[in-house]
Design brief:
With 257 residues, this protein is an alpha+beta fold. It is built from ten helices and eight strands.
């Protein structure tokens, strides 16, 4: 068995243990887990030690049995917060799409992608306009070359920004930002203006305007954007598109506070 195969097998055993807690809905000891899953006690013990170090399980010091840890609560809270955005934001992004007659997206930062730092589209309103190539729900994009990525990174915490030290600024067009210092300067501009733009940076001929959405703690949790062909967007960029996107983002944020 290769080291990669061994690692996958270890991950599957750890996931089996986690799912066993869901099935049994009670604290479980090493011997019991071993019997229920047909695993050696030493294997179960190693998996539990790793899960405990990461905060995914915790041991009851009185009974020596294990139960789910605080990390699952943190992840669950994040999931709930993210998914609750869609029903709140949906009428607003529809309103923005109707105003601009362009595609509108709601996106969040993928916090579990390591140093890759990408955004994920979680909701979208299509446009009836022609010549529109826009991302689908569930698709991702690197943060350095899309409006929603810049909008969220500009207001992200220090831990997230530190990931830029290992971030790979892959060029997609001649206009893509390809270094950390230039990107940080771009984020400073976004903070000052309250919105972000992607002008031919991810795809030639495509322009995007995005603004951040904040929760009741003042943390950036998402971004709303509109995008379309650059030749069509520039006509009403300053007087209509940018103010409309910022206003909708502010209104969604107010609903989360």
């Amino acid at each position: 068995m290769t080291s990669k195969e061994s690692g996958i097998a270890a991950l599957e055993r750890a996931m089996d243990i986690v799912m066993l807690f869901q099935q049994e809905k009670r604290e479980l000891g090493v011997t019991e887990i071993s019997r229920l899953l047909g695993l050696h006690k030493s294997t179960v013990h190693r998996c539990l030690n790793t899960l405990e170090r990461r905060g995914f399980v915790q041991q009851n010091q009185t009974t020596s049995r294990y139960w789910l840890g605080i990390k699952f609560y943190i992840l669950g809270s994040l999931y709930t917060e993210t998914m609750s955005l869609c029903p709140i934001a949906s009428p607003f992004i529809q309103e923005l799409a109707d105003q601009l007659n362009e595609a509108v997206h709601l996106a969040v930062l993928d916090r579990f992608c390591g140093e890759n730092l990408q955004v994920i589209v979680i909701d979208k309103v299509e446009t009836r306009q022609r010549l529109s190539i826009t991302p689908s729900i569930g698709s991702g994009a690197p943060v350095h070359c899309c409006g929603v990525g810049k909008a969220m990174m500009a207001f992200a915490g220090e831990e997230t920004l530190n990931k830029l030290l290992q971030y790979r600024f892959t060029p997609f067009t001649a206009h893509t930002i390809t270094d950390r210092e230039t990107f940080l300067q771009e984020l400073e501009k976004v903070r000052s203006l309250g919105y972000a733009m992607d002008r031919d940076e991810l795809e030639m001929g495509l322009t995007c305007v995005a603004a951040p959405i904040f929760n009741h703690r003042g943390e950036v949790v998402a971004a709303v954007s509109t995008s379309g062909p650059t030749t069509r967007m520039v006509a009403t960029l300053e007087e209509k598109i940018i103010p409309s996107v910022k206003q909708i983002a502010d209104r969604i944020s107010s609903r989360l506070k």
